[in-house]
């Protein structure tokens, strides 16, 4: 078992502590939080071992899970890697693209593994259909959330939209060509509502919308490709696949047939792939343990995390603020 520790014991850090303790792939050695008063309370309430310094925790671990505010990611990650320890780091990977590139290169230099916590990659609805998404040419994603002050230290792009950016980049095997974006600041200093249009070199277009001041939650993505439409509901963990194939000569009475202007007939087929229940955060942590054990590239590598951040920053830089 890998000895694991957590840097940062806020809301998400507590979840990671709980799941690392439950995992059969890790031995949780403890955590470090800069707020020592809060750390003592957590230690007393949950029984986790609180370390007096970041360095002391890192020294005691094989893998360190960084769940601090984003602005501290680079400082923590650099210390973890230079200590020769494997790094799991929450999204976004760092505060700037330059920092992300340094972390990626340091991991190669010190020969350690690194994974970014893009949890939607492990959403069971997405996992159920990702192999069916072949060459999408249009993608639409909506990620709407009710207001929560906890995420307003960063733009809604880095807080919410980056989930869909990462998922889309993992599907579309082409470089980004153009980015167009607009944002609205309603309650925060940075945009709370954002829309982005990403155009890829292969002709694919992705239209992404994110909001953190909505009245209801929504996390949906739709992928359109030749002869198929695939929808993913990340929130409800549901998915649907609609395929079109050449209609048989003698379709049954209940078949849905479409005929185009040239007289070509297509039959519509509906499929609801089985979605297996899981704990996505536990799965991403366990998958990292497997990557370390088998010396393979993690599911969401530091390179992929850096690329998702690069595209997110392109969106922010191209904002037309309303």
Mean pLDDT: 93
The gyration radius over C-alpha positions equals: 22 Å
Tally of helical runs: 9
Percent helix: 25-40%
Q: Report the top-level CATH class of the largest domain.
A: Alpha Beta
What is the CATH third-level topology name of the largest domain? Rossmann fold
The SS-based structural class is alpha/beta
Number of distinct beta strands: 15
Description:
With 322 residues, this protein is an alpha/beta fold. Helix 4 packs parallel to helix 5, helix 5 (97-109) packs antiparallel against helix 9 (302-317) and helix 7 (156-171) packs across helix 9 (302-317). It is globular, with a radius of gyration of 22 Å. The termini are far apart. It folds into 2 domains: 2-120 and 280-299, Rossmann fold (3-Layer(aba) Sandwich); 123-241 and 270-276 and 311-321, Dihydrodipicolinate Reductase, domain 2. A hairpin with an 8-residue loop joins strand 7 (176-184) and strand 8 (193-200). It has 9 helices and 15 strands. The protein has helices at 11-22, 36-46, 54-59, 73-82, 97-109, 124-129, 156-171, 280-294, 302-317; strands spanning 2-7, 26-32, 63-66, 86-90, 114-117, 138-144, 176-184, 193-200, 205-211, 218-225, 228-233, 238-246, 256-259, 265-271, 319-321. Residues 3-117 form the Gfo/Idh/MocA-like oxidoreductase N-terminal domain. Residues 134-217 form the GFO/IDH/MocA-like oxidoreductase domain. This is Gfo/Idh/MocA family protein.
């Amino acid at each position: 078992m890998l000895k694991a520790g957590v840097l940062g014991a806020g809301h998400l850090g507590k979840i990671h502590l709980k799941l690392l303790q439950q995992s059969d792939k890790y031995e949780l050695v403890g955590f470090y939080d800069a707020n020592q008063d809060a750390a003592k309370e957590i230690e007393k309430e949950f029984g986790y071992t609180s370390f007096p310094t970041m360095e002391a925790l890192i020294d005691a671990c094989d893998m360190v899970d960084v769940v601090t505010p984003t602005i501290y990611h680079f400082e923590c990650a650099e210390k973890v890697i230079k200590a020769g320890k494997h790094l799991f780091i929450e999204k976004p990977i760092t505060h700037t693209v330059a920092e992300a590139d340094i972390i990626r290169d340091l991991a190669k230099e010190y020969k350690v593994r690194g994974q970014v916590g893009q949890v939607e990659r492990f959403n069971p609805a997405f996992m159920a259909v990702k192999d069916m998404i072949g060459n999408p040419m249009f993608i639409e994603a909506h990620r709407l959330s009710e207001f929560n002050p906890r995420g307003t230290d960063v733009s809604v792009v880095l807080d919410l939209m980056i989930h869909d950016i990462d998922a889309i980049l993992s599907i579309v095997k082409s470089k980004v060509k153009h980015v167009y974006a607009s944002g609205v600041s309603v309650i925060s200093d940075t945009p709370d509502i954002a829309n982005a249009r990403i155009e890829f070199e292969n002709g694919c277009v992705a239209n992404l919308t994110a909001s953190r001041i909505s009245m209801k939650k929504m996390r949906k993505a739709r992928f359109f490709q030749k002869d198929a439409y695939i929808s993913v509901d990340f929130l409800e963990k549901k998915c649907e696949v609609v395929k079109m194939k050449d209609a048989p000569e003698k379709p049954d009475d209940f078949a849905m047939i479409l005929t185009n202007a040239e007289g070509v007939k297509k039959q519509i087929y509906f499929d609801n792939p089985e979605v297996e229940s899981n704990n996505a955060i536990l799965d991403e942590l366990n998958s990292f343990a497997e990557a370390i054990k088998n010396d393979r590239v993690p599911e969401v590598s530091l390179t992929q995390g850096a690329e998702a951040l690069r595209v997110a920053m392109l969106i922010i830089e191209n904002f037309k603020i309303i």
